[in-house]
Amino acid sequence: MSDYIASIGLEVHVQLKTRTKMFCACPAHEEGEPNTAVCPGCIGLPGALPVINREAIRKTVKVGLMIGSRISLYSTFDRKNYFYADMAKNYQITQNDFPLCIGGGVTIQVDGQPKTIRVHHIHQEEDVAKSTHLDNSTEVDFNRCSMPLMELVTEPDMANADEVMAFLTTLKQMLIYADISDCNLELGHMRCDVNSSVRPAGATKLGVKTELKNMNTFKGIQRALHYELQRQIEVLRGGGTIAQETRRWDDVAGVTLPMRTKESAPDYRYFPEADLPPIVLDEATIAAWRAELPEMPAARRARFVQEYGLPEYDAGVLTADKAIADYFEAAAKQAANPKAVSNWVMGELLRALGEQGQDITAAKITPAALVALIGLVEAKTINMPAAKEVFQILFENGGDPAAIVQAKGLAQVSDTGAIEGFAAQAIAANEKVAAEYRAGKEPALMFLVGQVMKLSRGKANPQLAAEALRRQLKG
Amino acid sequence: MNTSLHELGLLATAAALAKKEVSAVELATALLDRAAQVEPKLNSLTWQERDVVLAAAREADTARAKGDTRPWLGVPLAVKDVLSVNGQPCTAGSKMLRNYVAPYDATVIARLRAAGCVFVARTNTDEFAMGGSTATSCFGPTRNPWSPARVPGGSSGGSAAAVAARLAPAALGTDTSGSIRQPAAFCGVTGFKPTYGRVSRQGCVANASSLDQIGPLARSVEDAAALYQAIAGVDPLDSTTSPRPVGGVLAAAQQARDLKGLKLGVPREYFIAELAPELAQLTRAAIDQCAALGAEIVEVSLPHVSASLPCYAVLGSAEASASLARYDGMRYGLRVDAPELMEMYDRTRAAGFGDEVKRRLLFGTLVLTSRYHADFYLRAQKVRTLIRQDFLQAFTACDALLGPVTLTPPPRLDAAPDSASARQWGDYCTAGVNLAGICALSVPCGFTADGLPAGLHVVGPAFQDELVLRIGAAYQHATDWHQRAPTGLE
Ligand SMILES: [Zn+2]
């Protein structure tokens, strides 16, 4: 592939997290029976008019602010005309001439180096209904019709599938951070059209592009791009030319297939939407919306290193997910030792979440409980195996760590008398190992400590056990 | 009193009900009986259910007996068949919507319902309000009450004819290029097209969203002002409505007795060769009457008037091509099944739409294609700006404009609907008002030798609705043209 360069641009459709739909008062969720969250507006009854959802505008502008776009003080809606069963009005209200956000960029990491993917613009629009194709018919659910979407259009700045993945991951992280969207790919919250072209290395003019429509999994985009770029290169290598066309990804066959050529592309006949006035924003409003923006992942990562003394690696892992970062920070603020919190979050907490396939909201352990648990370990009230047991209980059921330790009798035995007794028993039962230790074989002590733990049924403070053993073996 | 209940105008009806001189049921019965007599000849109504109307009237009477004193309780109104009334058909005069029943109230209807009105009938319209004759309706043509061989005008021809024929004290219509004013002039009633943004369009079957406006047709300017005041004002469901207060329009109209201190402009471009001499004469006489009432009359110019019809043809059709795209057989209305989706669309729309609608949708689609967008659509937008500037310029020299509403008296039905000249000249005097988004009134100003009514056009700047109604009211207080009623309809 090294003799060809690829240029990839994305059109990313993101469903915004709002209470109501883009142009009517219907609830913006897809739960419930099909065609129940509908009204005259979103099923296109005669006479119904659209009304702009200001919250959607606010969210889209905030995305523009996050990526450094110029925010349009004046922007307008247009009608995009085409007939299809998932369209209530047979035109989509979108922005063609004057979009909300212009320019900007998203910085990704490529081989440890920053690379900025330029954004052409972001515009606001409404979703279409959801079609389910059956054997002999198609079911259309208008619950999704007129859901608020923003469409972010990039320049063709990405050179391969890895950069596309990095871009989408970074964008998704930012959108979740600022509470713009849940970005649930399974629910179709993020859908991409992928434009790609290849050209011989050294050529400056971009090659003819194809468009892959409606890709809704990252994995699918990655596979489709690998296939499509290779296909284009092979066509060029064989002396052929690329047709400018729209293609679709067949996930089962693992190939892209032509959908329609440029010549048969629809003429959308855009013109201004007279039912909606222009969106006029002022600097004060934009400033207020800017002030609502949360800290972005990269900035937070740097701050975690500085403020909590975390290693870069820890800060990166913790800030990858805003909810995890929030959880960590809530705990770290109360903890004497933030690094210990980081170890617990990155270790036990992420493991437990991973095993359950849950996100942090499902965990019953509060940040305060985690801090209390760490305190019990540091005060040597419980040992590590016991702490992990308590953690599992807290994770599943919540509660107070001290109470759980008490109820389960998990407190370490720090009573030196009892430990001396266990040590004596351990030495008596393992004379051979004791002799090895006395002969200078230090690791033998660990075996004896293990025996003491066993005799104490795990409750002995291992440090005290080691001290008692040493003393008795010396004597 | 019973024999002439149908003669009562809107405010008179409300007063009679309030004073309990008449019950809502008596009134509704009188109107239903009148319709039964007149409709075979007129065909102005597309729907009227005796039981439904009487039940609503009975409900109003019951409410009044319980102490309800809402000013319009039991007042009967007719509604153009493009405005949604919950539970009533809303056909837009089209086969496409012949089986469609509106499941919600338009904002204007909700306001009138809250005021106590009873919606007694739906009135005929050109299909999807496209036309100037009410002859393109799937319910067949409406006849002019003054001369049944002639058209009532359109597209609100059913409303104008019903009000003229005393089937309702007043009616709602819509005006996209003259569809309230032209039928009002042809039928000898008062019709008002409010400033764009004054009256909510929510619930009005869209023709061209940037031009459509709902307004009253009534038997006097006072009645029209009262109905306008009841429906006007900002609506959160129509983002193009203006938050400016509507004001005491009715009181202003009731008090108007002279036109002292007003400068009224007469655009010379309205008095072209195509203007029927009789109408020119009647208009001149009305202008003289205004001068006699104290107005200073000045000549002004609207240089781009002649461009308003082609401009309207392009923009109106372009907007309509999108507005009517929703009628596809998928969710409601007519469906002609086919094995493939696109074929179902084709068959449904071929069967559901009439010729005039098809002509406009095809033309509107064409002018928006990337090939013709710049030459037609964008150019027409520029012309629209010129037309708007014409009016702004004229209003620097005067407070309002006077002129004819139509160039001819109502044409014969057999000559009207499809004639090229009707399309070329039909809305010559009126379409510019919609393109400029301003307000205008048509008031009866006399009759031709054949006994056909003529209308005086009063055109005002944006949001000077009250001024226009005041001018019309002062004129009507000095004349009695609006009190004449057609005869021989029974
Ligand atoms: Zn809705």
Strand element count of chain B: 11
Give me the secondary-structure category of chain A: alpha+beta
Average pLDDT of chain A works out at: 92
Helix content of chain B: 25-40%
CATH domain class name of one domain in chain B: Alpha Beta
Please give the count of helices of chain A.
15
Outline the structure in words.
The complex is a heterodimer of chains A (475) and B (490). Chain A folds into three domains: 4-289, no CATH class; 297-408, no CATH class; 416-474, Orthogonal Bundle (Arc Repressor Mutant, subunit A). Chain A is built from 15 helices and 17 strands. Chain A has helices spanning 54-66, 161-177, 218-237, 283-291, 297-308, 312-319, 322-332, 338-356, 367-378, 384-397, 401-408, 416-429, 431-438, 444-455, 462-474; strands spanning 4-15, 70-71, 74-75, 78-81, 91-94, 101-102, 105-110, 113-126, 130-133, 138-141, 148-154, 190-200, 210-215, 245-250, 255-261, 271-272, 279-280. In chain A, helix 3 links the parallel strand 13 and strand 14 (245-250). In chain A, helix 14 crosses helix 15 (462-474). The N and C termini of chain A lie far apart (73 Å). Chain B is α/β, with parallel strands linked by helices and 490 residues long. Helices cover 40% and strands 13% of the residues of chain B. Chain B contains 16 helices and eleven strands. Chain B has an eleven-stranded mixed sheet with strand order 1-3-2-4-6-5-10-11-9-7-8. Bound molecules: zinc ion (ZN). The site of zinc ion has 8 residues of chain A, from loops.
Write the layout of secondary structure elements.
The complex is a heterodimer of chains A (475) and B (490).
Chain A: E1 4-15, H1 54-66, E2 70-71, E3 74-75, E4 78-81, E5 91-94, E6 101-102, E7 105-110, E8 113-126, E9 130-133, E10 138-141, E11 148-154, H2 161-177, E12 190-200, E13 210-215, H3 218-237, E14 245-250, E15 255-261, E16 271-272, E17 279-280, H4 283-291, H5 297-308, H6 312-319, H7 322-332, H8 338-356, H9 367-378, H10 384-397, H11 401-408, H12 416-429, H13 431-438, H14 444-455, H15 462-474
Parallel strand pairs in A: 13-14
Antiparallel strand pairs in A: 1-11, 1-12, 2-6, 3-17, 4-5, 4-16, 6-8, 7-8, 8-11, 9-10, 12-13, 14-15
Chain B: H1 10-18, H2 24-42, E1 45-47, H3 50-65, E2 76-80, H4 107-115, E3 118-123, H5 157-164, E4 170-175, H6 181-187, E5 190-193, E6 213-218, H7 221-231, H8 249-255, E7 263-267, H9 277-292, E8 296-300, H10 308-323, H11 341-352, H12 355-368, H13 373-397, E9 400-404, H14 420-425, H15 431-436, E10 439-447, E11 453-460, H16 465-478
Parallel strand pairs in B: 2-3, 2-4, 7-8, 7-9
Antiparallel strand pairs in B: 1-3, 4-6, 5-6, 5-10, 9-11, 10-11
The complex binds zinc ion.
